[in-house]
Amino acid sequence: MSPLRQPSTTRTATARPSTGHARRTRPPAVDTACGEAVDLARAAAEDEARPSPVGEHLGAQAEGDRVVTHYFAALDPAYRGWRWAVTVTRASRAKNVTVSECVLLPGEDALLAPPWVPWLERLRPGDLGPGDLLPTAPDDARLAPGYTQADEAIDRAAPWEPGLGRVRVLSQEGRDEAATRWYEGIAGPRAPIAVSAPAQCSTCGFYVPLAGELRLVFGVCANEYAPDDGRVVSADHGCGAHSEAVSVPAASEQATPLIDEMGYDIVPADTDDDPETVAERELGHS
């Protein structure tokens, strides 16, 4: 009979892994003793929330074998939508239930702070004020060691320019980023004031070209009456304060203003004058 029973035994053995797998994926059931420990969980929540009261019991959830979390409404006005979560547990074959953890958790309608953003990503141009320090990362791609960026094409008459005496200088990437930012910003050719300008900055007498590789594209405005005075502008930028925009006539060539002496002013009559004064005025006009 044993050879006939062997296939049945084999089929039973092969079916066990499927049964065990289904048992592992099934959520744990709420332990009876832990699920009934509502008063114990409430006491733990009230001890943490003191002096604020604890609201109604919102339910319980099994976290594992003999581990249950009870939820209570938080009545503190500052934590509207939050809830107290008290986790209770008991040892195997033990009847005594103990508190494992008590925390305040946000609910679906809780008011939460926005996601934290590193300060370097929050920083914007103009945020740096007097006394503020802005550290630069050692591996900042915009900078490179001073000597490695020295180029034979750079004028050796200014030894500080290739980086001598400075720990770091602008890297090629840093120069490209700055050039793109300046050219596409308010100092570039597409700014509204540049579109309506009579001529470009490259032909202005107040335009001071930069040194180095940026000389061909950028300079500094030196006109105190221009809106970009003391700022970097592109060579094809412009404004109405161009040195050759208009020709102001000399003082001797200015026209003498004309005065119209044929006009007259209408003066309202004074009703307080006495009859004799009025009569004399009328005789004078006649």
In brief, what are we looking at here?
The protein is an alpha+beta fold. It has helices at residues 2-25, 32-35, 38-49, 119-122, 172-184, 192-195, 275-285; strands spanning 54-64, 67-74, 82-89, 98-106, 143-145, 168-170, 207-209, 218-221, 232-234.
Oligomer: single chain
Report the sheet with the most strands, covering strand number, pairing sense and barrel closure: 4 strands, antiparallel
Q: Would you report the number of β strands?
A: 9
Could you please say which CATH topology of the domain at 32-106 applies here? Answer: Nuclear Transport Factor 2, Chain: A
The CATH architecture term of the domain at 32-106 is Roll
User: What is the H/E order?
Assistant: HHHEEEEHEEHHEEEH
Derived from helix and strand composition plus strand pairing, the structural class reads alpha+beta
CATH class of the domain at 32-106 equals: Alpha Beta
Bin the strand percentage. 15-25%
* Gyration radius, rounded: 43 Å
* Range of helix content: 25-40%
Query: What best-fitting shape do the alpha-carbon axes yield?
Result: elongated
Strand order of the largest sheet: 1-2-3-4
| Number of H- or I-type helical stretches | 7
Question: What would you say this structure looks like, in words?
Answer:
It is built from seven helices and nine strands, in the order H-H-H-E-E-E-E-H-E-E-H-H-E-E-E-H. It has 286 residues and is an alpha+beta fold.
